[in-house]
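During the reporting period the student researcher (J.K.) took over the structure-prediction task from the postdoctoral fellow and processed the backlog of single-chain submissions. One of the processed entries is reproduced below for the supervisory committee.
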Amino acid sequence: MRYLRLVTILIFVAACALLCWTLYSISLRDTAEPQIVDSVGQLHLSVSDDAGALMQGLTATDDRDGDLTDRILIERVSRFSQPGVCQVSYVVFDNSNNFCRYQRTVVYDDYESPRLQLEQPLMYRMGEQIAIMDRIRLHDCLDGDITYKLKLESSNVPADTTGVYEIELYATNNYGDDIYAKIPLNIGVYSADAPQILLKQYLAYAKVGEDFAPLAYVESVEDRAGTPIPVDQVKVISQVDLSKPGGGQICFEVTDQRGVTGITYLTVIVEES
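J.K. obtained the following structure tokens:
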């Protein structure tokens, strides 16, 4: 009987000791979240800044682990709420896997929507295979070449009938910025012997009401043998209405010494000023 009582006492003491140890361990456990401090607030950046610039002004500390600034991670970048403005979410973990999240507004001051580019004029000889997407590129100031996102919404172009046709292009970049454009495409009887007018670029953007100098886009002119023709012989034979958003094309023309005339086109997209 005395032995049983002793065993009972020992079990009770052991249980009490285990309970005390458990409570002590819990009291030592790190449950406090680290803290992210922002000394900047709304962050203004340039599109040329690298990803590291998104960390400007942020520090992180933990009451046990100390400085955790180099552990701050970008958790999410939102789509734009308006062009160039997004929300960036950050997170940091301490050694006990406690974490803190923080979100702030980032503004890209020099952001502009994705821009279409033409590597050649949209002019095809009658009967020629029309591969529109081979000539068009889409450039984003943040993500670079995003041509793979470009969609041809409509293209009812009869390759065997001369004329000026309209194609529609649509794309959305990684930040949710949509672009939509209607641009002209030309089917004609173009001579391979005609002089060539080479432009610096074949698609330009203009603002409503701004001065636009088409001849500034002419890079060089040469006849079928490669002999240069003075640029000042090039004539502008059509213009684009710059009084409202939209666009169209400007036609350039030049005639060589044989009396053969060559043409090319500059596509112009007119935006709100």
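The committee noted the following: The CA atoms of residues 208 and 242 lie 5 Å apart.
J.K. will present the remaining backlog at the next meeting.
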